[in-house]
Write a structure and sequence with these properties.
Number of strands of chain B: 5
CATH topology of chain B: Arc Repressor Mutant, subunit A
Oligomer: heterodimer
Radius of gyration of chain B: 13 Å
Strand order of the largest sheet of chain B: 2-3-4
Number of domains of chain B: 1
CATH architecture of chain B: Orthogonal Bundle
Structural class of chain B: alpha+beta
Order of helices and strands of chain B: EEEEHHHE
Strand order of the largest sheet of chain A: 3-2-1-4-5-6
Shape of chain A: globular
């Protein structure tokens, strides 16, 4: 086993957040909203080189102050959002700059591999961390994990967690996250505004805006769970402005309702449309699950569903037809762990591999 | 000196173009030249009295005036949660 002088850390590098899981006697978690940083720095900066690597350095330096030696398991999906950066070269150079820290990435075989042994960068290794966790809890079914910008679907058939390459995950389902995804693409044939189905503006409106309109306390909790403190009244006002823009409702204009001769209540129209959009979003998630089930041919009667991530309650709502077959991961693991499941998977797989190594020796 | 000790947070990054990044909440602050120099010196472990002396000498400004500006800057860092400042109560 790893000695008391050795620390184990799992790090999930997402495009919006870097999530860290320290496996100590009491597990510690940290979430860093790097996407917010990137949006505020100059456009020319590289997200990986100029923001994430300096943050990783801070994390590792702190760990090395606590432990003589640190094992760092990394998983990421950032290459899906920013495919042009040389991740393997960056991480190799980074790893080489440390003598007392060893860096691994979770391979598709679900075994961590040292970064310097890699020949090519593994695509979407964060899914491997979820696959690792999924096989712990499911024999047949699906683990669905919703982050702020994306949702990851991990089907499990006869105890094997199927890699993304082998099943199809629709763009609408996969790129629907709990906060940041624009809603334009999930509305299909438009939304009812003033009693008529109308297409939306492609420039404004995110899931966070929708949640702030229909369930502000949940939305504010989600934002705070990701270390993004917001002033509630300002956030709600900004969300309503974004939604008005999305729906093409102008603040300084009145809209006559021919049905009763008065004017439409613009605020009510924004709320109704928000429920409609949210319903479509839930259906897009449900449809994606059905699509994958059909493709992989998982026995739906035997199946169980685990939902996790900051969008855990949203996923649970989207799967309500499956009733008590749906369980929240936060009821099996601690709440924080359920949110940072990818980094937990990275750390846990590393801990187990290092334990096995010692036993082999 | 009105300032006893200053401790910068663990998760801050200073960029070459004078931005101070707080990774814990995603905030980014644009610093003026003086603010940038103070943060660099704090990061490098300099004592507050030496920081004030150094700036005073570099810009030929009286020590008292520099100290006043630095204290105001530190109050702002403290309010934003960027640094922990231990103030000297006897001054």
């Amino acid at each position: 086993m790893s000695t008391s002088e050795e620390g184990i850390v799992g790090i999930d590098i997402g495009s919006a957040h870097v999530k860290v899981c320290h496996l100590t006697e009491r597990m510690e978690t940290e979430i860093f909203p790097v996407g917010m940083v990137a949006s505020k720095l100059s456009e020319g900066c590289s997200r990986m080189r100029d923001i994430i690597l300096p943050l990783l350095r801070k994390i590792i330096e702190r760990e090395l102050n606590r432990w003589e030696r640190v094992h760092v398991g990394i998983v990421t999906s950032i290459e899906a959002a920013y495919p042009r950066e040389p991740y393997l070269r960056y991480l190799r150079e980074f790893a080489e700059s440390y003598f007392d820290a060893k860096f691994y990435i979770l391979h598709e075989t679900l075994r961590p591999r040292e970064i310097h042994t890699l020949e090519k960068w593994p695509f979407m290794s964060s899914i491997n961390a979820l696959r690792y966790i999924a096989t712990r809890f499911l024999t047949d079914g699906m683990l669905i994990h919703m982050n702020s910008s994306s949702t990851l679907f991990v089907p499990v058939k006869e105890g094997f967690a199927i890699p993304l390459e082998l099943h199809y995950s629709s763009g609408v389902g996969m790129w629907g996250g709990a906060l940041h995804r624009h809603v334009f693409n999930i509305t299909g044939g438009g939304v009812y505004i003033f009693g008529r189905k109308t297409y939306l503006s492609p420039t404004a409106g995110s899931i966070a805006d929708i949640l702030l309109e229909i369930d502000p306390s949940r939305a504010l909790m989600l934002l705070q769970n990701h270390n993004m403190p917001v002033k509630s009244e300002e956030a709600k006002k900004r969300a309503r402005n974004n939604l008005a823009q999305l729906l093409g409702i102008f603040e300084n204009r009145e809209y006559r309702n021919l049905l009763h001769g008065g004017f439409f209540d613009k605020r009510n129209q924004i709320k109704i449309a928000s429920y409609h959009i949210y319903g479509n979003f839930l259906y897009a998630l449900f449809e994606n699950v059905v699509k994958i089930f059909s493709e992989v041919d998982i026995d739906v009667e035997k199946a169980h569903f685990l939902v996790s991530g900051i969008g855990e309650p949203i996923l649970e709502e989207s799967l309500h037809l499956f009733g008590d077959k749906v369980e929240r991961m936060s009821q099996k693991l601690s709440g924080e762990c359920s949110i940072i499941l990818e980094s937990y998977g990275a750390a846990l797989s590393l801990q187990e591999m290092l334990g096995v190594k010692d036993e082999d020796a | 000196m009105r300032v006893k000790k200053v401790k910068l947070g663990e998760y801050f990054m200073l960029t070459e173009d004078r931005y101070l990044v707080d990774f814990t909440c995603g905030e980014v602050y644009e610093l003026n030249l003086l603010g940038y120099e103070v943060i660099v010196m704090l990061r490098d472990g300099m004592e507050m009295k030496d920081i004030v002396k150094s700036i005073s000498a570099k810009y030929s400004v009286p020590v008292e005036r520099v100290e006043e500006d630095v204290v105001n800057f530190l109050k702002m860092l403290e309010e934003e949660g960027i640094a922990e400042v231990v103030w000297n109560e006897h001054q």
